[in-house]
Amino acid sequence: MELVCKFNYCYWYTIGSKYTSIITSSSITEPNTIIKTINGNHLEGKSDKDIEEIWFNGTTVNYFPQGLNKIFPNLKTVIIDYCGLKSITRRDLVGLENIQMLWCGHNKIASLPDNLFRNMNKLIYISFYDNDLHCMSSEVLKPILKNDLKYVDFSENRSIDAGYRDSSYTLLIYGNKVDSVAQLMAMIDEKCDKPMKDEQTFSNTNLKDNKLPQRNKKLKDFKSDGFKELWTTGRFSDITIVTDTEKFKVHKNILAIQSSVFTSIFEDKMKDRPSDEIHLKNINVNIVTIFLKFFYTDEVDETEISNLLEVFALAAKFKVENLMSVVEKMITDDLNDDNAMDVFKLACRFNCDGMKTSAFEVIQSMFDEPLKDELMNQPEVIFESIFRCEGKQLNFRNPRLNRNQRNQQEDHAKGVDKIADMIESANVQNCGHQIVGGEDESFQLQKKKSGEAETSTNVPAPICRPGYTGRSCDIISDICLANEPCEHGGICTTMPDNNYHCDCTLGYTGENCQHMVALKTKARFKGDGYLELNRSTIATSSSQLSSGLAVLFSTKEPNGLILWYGQERGKGFNGEDFLSLAVNDGILEFTFRIDGEESVIKHHSVPVIPNRRHIAILKRTANQASLELDGFTEYGETARPTEKNEMFLAGHVFLGGAPDLKRFTGERYSNGFIGCIHTVEPILGGAIQLGENTISSLNVDDCSPAPDNEEEDDDDDFFGTEPPVV
């Protein structure tokens, strides 16, 4: 992965200034993500070797980034702040043994392993302020007691709210300040549950003589025998998983705990799903069994190891991260010439950087002249190279030939029939269809329709490219997989009649996400997207006594969310403080919630006219607020006084919509904005440069006519005329 940063000096009390790499835009959503390069313009006379501190600020870092020490060899400080970091392990800190400060505040870490700080002989400043810590023991600090610790902060966590600081260190402890590290350690053992040890998380495996090792697959020891009994008996089940051949009686709560996809299904956020059944078609029933059993036992049966790729794909589809992690380790442990391409394809499909890197290294070894490292992010080039060289004796060892065939190829220099000599892969289904008796289901159906008698055959079905099916692999079964029409990381969705729709990520637009877009101060929305703006452009703190924004906008529709500023991304609304601006039936409304009290200011005196620019100014102090629209002001306040005056806004600012809009806004809004947001300004600042401060976005364009040769369904007034002078 490549990141872009800004280089500058950051000052810490007592410590002094450090030359810092500041990263405000990233998307590290998979474990073992390796950072290859961090680009930016150094200050004059400086280089990567001068960097002492890296600071991930208000961006997406769900998993600890790997490879930082290789880019910045003299790193002394790592800060991951307001980034949604979910976990940290000893393995994450390998190579960072020389750092003095580790700062992971305002994240989602629930547990710290005992061996986290082993070999961290220079670490003296530590903060896990405002996480979800409830599983840890005093053992975590024992390896660094000899370091003369200056600052250790575990304030505002689920089970512990305390910290220690040396008298020479001036940074405050916001929780209970203790007098010694020993006192803090005693409090940890008193307040927190014991953590799961690293050796319980993954089994140690070694491959010898090409034989599969015995593996202990237990991930955690908190699952009771009762859970296993529920799996075995199906008692008290409330949902049925239906495959092609079997039905499984399972339990919504148990599935939802580990899968956000199941959670969405059960909350009726996905369409066409019966309330009491979920259908998993064209998936091997053994794979479904392994998948579902894991929810109840945290175990993977070693006898099913030949199906690991399919297990991983199903786990990824339903976002079961624990299962993905353990299966990924098994896959990488068993990487070889015969499966490297299939593993690489799987890793590319699910953006699994760690597994992709491991598979790519094996693929490189197949060529006499190793592939360049940069090709790892160009899988289509690799596939083309392999297809071009496959079966030839040029510079490539054919990974799909068995070893005897490969030796014959080298000894006799004879061509081979690639279909007849291809080994049937146990890990890849035929173009998304279950292979039955050598023929895929679609081919059998064609024979039945034509009246052709069914005959048994030992000829293996062809292994089609993804998205194709049929005896000749010439039938498109999934246009997204077959053609991969969405460019630049766009997300493809197959629509009825084999059409497709591309959701474009940050920086791209167009039917196929083929056009680059450089946002400045304006952004255009079509009702199906959003822009996540770094909150630091609006406010300096999450706790705010007063708030103020100005928004210049023009809309095409009478309903749509313009702005939401409240909870963190991905969380459903649960009563948190928030600010929102929306058009509702042609009326602009400003809604705010503080301390459980909510107020809506509707601006009835100035209607929102389509295709005309309007200027809205939002102001709030404590529980009172105002909404100015084109020079006219309406006022409002909460129905009851609030005990607190400060509003706590933990998330970033969403413009034009939000992911899972209805759930995110607590059913207040269901329509994204259709129109242009021309300017967003804090009350005491200038227009915000959206391109420089966007954390994530979906289907966002600039407010200019469509590129040449692309259809434009909007009229000429879409971008809005100036408001009347008042």
Automatic annotation (TrEMBL):
Keyword Transmembrane helix: no
PROSITE patterns, per the entry: BTB, EGF_1, EGF_2, EGF_3, LAM_G_DOMAIN
Pfam families, alphabetized: BTB, EGF, Laminin_G_2
Naturally occurring in which organism (per UniProt): Clunio marinus
Keyword Repeat listed: yes
Domain called BTB: residue spans: 237-304
Region annotation (Disordered) ranges: 699-726
Top-level taxonomy: Eukaryota, Metazoa, Ecdysozoa, Arthropoda, Hexapoda
EGF-like domain residues: 476-514
Laminin G domain ranges (all copies): 520-703
Name of the featured protein: CLUMA_CG013014, isoform A
